[in-house]
Amino acid sequence: MSIALKFSSRAFALVLALFIFLGPTAAIAQPSVLPSGGGKALIDTSDTVILLLDHQTGLFQTVKDISVAELRSNTVMLAKLATLLKIPVITTASEPNGPNGPLMPEIHQFAPHAVYVPRKGEVNAWDNEDFVKKVQATGRKTLIMAGVWTSVCVMFPALDAKASGYKVYAVIDASGDPSEMASRASVARFALGGVTPISTNAVLSETHRTWNRPEAAELAKLYGLVAPNYAAVMESYGKAQEAALQRK
Fold it and tell me: Annotated catalytic sites, by residue?
C-alpha cells in the first residue's frame, strides 16, 4: 500500500470515529454562521477570494523569515483548501519571465480553477486594472492574501484593497520577506492599516469550522501540511483504530 493511501485510510478512520461520536447528522454541511450564532466574526467562505501574489521561484531564494519548504507547503494548503471549499483563487506575477522567475507550479496544480492575471510590470497588483476588475467580478468582499515579498507584494495591494472597502487578511506564513525585521515591520504595518495578520492554520480552522461536514476527511489531511506533527497524531490514531478493528 502506498504512503498516500495509508495516510488517506488513517485520516478516514479518524474522521469516521468523529462521525460516530457526533451522530448521524455528521454528513450535513454547515453554513458559515452556525445556528448558535457562532462564527459571525470569522471568515465567511461564501464571501471570500484567495489572492496568491508573486509566489515566484526566483524571489523564494531571497526569503529569510521562513523556510522555503514551509512557505511552499503552506501555500499549497491554501490552494487545496480553496479547491475543496470552492473558494475562488486569483494569482498574478509582475514579470514571470524576469529574474524573479515563474510562479510555483503547485498553486495551479492543486487549484486548477485559479485564474492567473498577468501584469505589465506593476509592483503593486492593485495598480493593474485587469487584476482589480477580476477581484471585483467575484462580487466578494473578503480577501485572503499571501505572497512574496510580504512587505511589498502583499502589503501594497492589501492596504489599497482595505482602502477600497474590502475586509483583508494577510497570511503571514504563506508569505515571505528578506529578513525577520522586515517581517515584524510588515505585521505591525498591517495592523496599523486595518489588515488582519493571520496564519495558514487559522485560515484552515476558521473555514473548516466543524468536523460535522462531508469534507471532514479531506480537511483532516490539510492539517498535516500546516502542522506536520498533527499528521503524526493522525497516523498513530489511525493505526490504533486499525488494530482495534482487527481484534474484533
Answer: 153
